[in-house]
Fold this sequence. Notes:
Elements: E1 2-5, H1 6-20, E2 42-43, E3 47-52, H2 67-76, E4 81-83, E5 89-91, E6 99-101, E7 106-110, H3 125-137, E8 150-157, E9 160-165, H4 172-176, H5 186-192, E10 206-212, E11 216-221, E12 235-240, H6 244-253, E13 258-259, H7 264-270, E14 276-282, E15 286-291, H8 309-312, H9 314-322, H10 326-334, E16 339-340, H11 362-372, E17 378-385, H12 388-404, E18 406-413, H13 415-424, E19 429-434, H14 441-448, H15 462-473, H16 477-494, E20 497-502, E21 504-510, E22 513-514, E23 517-518, E24 524-525, E25 530-532
Parallel strand pairs: 3-12, 3-13, 17-18, 17-19
Antiparallel strand pairs: 1-14, 2-25, 4-5, 6-7, 7-9, 8-9, 10-11, 11-12, 13-21, 14-21, 15-19, 15-20, 16-20, 22-25, 23-24
Helix pairs in contact: 9-11, 10-12, 14-15, 15-16
Amino acid sequence: xxxxxxxxxxxxxxxxxxxxxxxxxxxxxxxxxxxxxxxxxxxxxxxxxxxxxxxxxxxxxxxxxxxxxxxxxxxxxxxxxxxxxxxxxxxxxxxxxxxxxxxxxxxxxxxxxxxxxxxxxxxxxxxxxxxxxxxxxxxxxxxxxxxxxxxxxxxxxxxxxxxxxxxxxxxxxxxxxxxxxxxxxxxxxxxxxxxxxxxxxxxxxxxxxxxxxxxxxxxxxxxxxxxxxxxxxxxxxxxxxxxxxxxxxxxxxxxxxxxxxxxxxxxxxxxxxxxxxxxxxxxxxxxxxxxxxxxxxxxxxxxxxxxxxxxxxxxxxxxxxxxxxxxxxxxxxxxxxxxxxxxxxxxxxxxxxxxxxxxxxxxxxxxxxxxxxxxxxxxxxxxxxxxxxxxxxxxxxxxxxxxxxxxxxxxxxxxxxxxxxxxxxxxxxxxxxxxxxxxxxxxxxxxxxxxxxxxxxxxxxxxxxxxxxxxxxxxxxxxxxxxxxxxxxxxxxxxxxxxxxxxxxxxxxxxxxxxxxxxxxxxxxxxxxxxxxxxxx
Length: 537
């Protein structure tokens, strides 16, 4: 993470931005920025308000599908493993890295012996088994396909867990350092069942107090937390403020202390404010346009037949893809502060390979539409989120696609409603992103694999499925790098997930807050955050 006091950050960011014309060179290259370490001491007490870009969906680790929910979980629900500031997997509720045996088909690990859930239940091997079994078997679980290589979860000792796998699954550890590794109180699971989200209980620095849907989620410091002496705040409030300009205004007024997922316009405005600090990290995720090619029975159903030109002919999807100029989108919509994206593999990670995004080609797009025999302009309903940034993005896409023979009709939709419609298959295309994981399998398998729990458009391609399986089955870095290069090409040939840009994770915070952690997954971690001693604001 890079933390830049606003005055210093202004010069640093502007110098970096003007050097190449954008924050990152064209193509899939990782962005970098100057680093300034913040080691200011903090005091105990007080409540911090975090402004979220959208309202989280269910506060249920098995059923959630949003980045903002994961942001809340970082404060109230710990995982077996986590990702540190250098994108390395480290133990969290597990007490050590797993022992891998039987040719990669058995993972054995111990869990902490000093942890309790917020409802008083003790963390042990049986509690971990209860959560992992729920992730695997609960109807509608978004985690099921993420850890579907797990055949059996065993508690082989009071604090020892063994996972027996159907086959070797190298990326599994990365998934256990993500939502699939979130562990819930077995007491709460038994008591509330599918209503866990209204009474969530986990191991974390803060515990759930109340929620007002569409407005705020209130957490209080958990005295049962094993590391409570490192927690300085009395509580954290997550408040939904969809407009970045309003989040920034609330930061300046003092009503909000941290603004999550801040856009380039707000970041540039904050850079000149001595009372604010900017935090940023390169993203492990991506933003994309997902085309509905087979989701006519809901995301839990089998891929079916969708009656649109986009779903029925890949040439129409390719033409739409060719109508987009990713570099221009970055400059016009995001002031050159993001980077074009044309694949799911995070740049700058061990399994990434340099790629250059395909250039816009309107003439070829028109030729493909003619070959497909479709009547132009080809209509497309594009669902977008109700934020100014998403509106600008949609308008630019609409204008570019029109030149190639498309009639894009924007459908601004509130975030939670959009998710419900997407899961039900009630959409033609939608914009959206994925928070990202260091291992590329976490950005691919459940999102484009047949029957993947996050495969919103229900793409089904045997070659993609074959490569997904190959990427899981070997731990050889060179082989996996080759597999994911081929997998990226196979996904791009389908043009059903059209990768558009890779953002930089930006957060803006008040100068009198310190100890905030922001990693490449884009999640703000509040465990050690607190108000600066002396109250220098």
